[in-house]
Amino acid sequence: MDRILRWSNFLNENSKYNRKIYGYSWNELYYIIEDEIDDPEEFLNYLIKKLKKIEKEKKINLYRIVFAKNKDDIDVNKLGHHFVQDPKDFHEEMNDYLFRNARKENSELEETDLFLVEVEIETKYIDFEYTIMTNCQHPFESEITVEKPEKCVIKNITEYYDN
């Protein structure tokens, strides 16, 4: 009940935060991340600024990791919707989660059977609404969601552990 009361007080005191951002009110997004990180207001302002900057670009490069025994096994037409803007954003927990899912389809995969796929995409194909929600729900990930992954242009595929 304390959280609801705090939230209600926050809304009453800060009506300026009712503005809409990518389909959500600032307050809705703040509420999602409030208990996840130390300074939710700073994080949310940073996230909005980052997405607005991306939105102004015509094209951007994004990255995805894919488990495969070799480069030729990668189906570039089925990369999925979730990418990151910086390959340094891939972390051990994310890699482990993706590995466990990949092993369900191919039990012969090893943790080192990992490739980094670099794509270029026009920013008009980014789902900013889904991206901001995902980043608020998982503030320690920097995922960018692509609406139409078929519009991705493959720039490079390299072995991940050689990078």
Provide keyphrases for this structure.
single chain; alpha+beta; 5 helices; 7 strands; 37% helix; 21% strand
Structure overview:
This protein has a three-stranded antiparallel sheet with strand order 3-5-7. Helices cover 37% and strands 21% of the residues. Strand 1 and strand 2 form a beta hairpin. It has helices spanning 2-13, 26-33, 40-56, 92-105, 128-137; strands spanning 20-21, 24-25, 59-67, 82-84, 114-122, 143-145, 153-159. The model has no long low-confidence stretch (mean pLDDT 88). It has one domain (2-162). The chain is globular. The chain starts with a helix and ends with a strand. The chain is of the alpha+beta class and 163 residues long.
Give the helix tally: 5
Gap from first CA to last CA: 49 Å
- Overall number of structural domains: 1
Order of helices and strands: HEEHHEEHEHEE
Percent strand: 15-25%
Sheet with most strands: 3 strands, antiparallel
- How many individual β-strands? 7
**Shape assignment:** globular
Question: How much is the radius of gyration in Å?
Answer: 18 Å
Poorly predicted runs: none
What oligomeric arrangement do these chains adopt?
single chain
Q: What's the pLDDT, averaged over the residues?
A: 88
Helix content: 25-40%
Q: What structural class is derived from the secondary structure elements? A: alpha+beta
> Strand order across the biggest sheet?
3-5-7
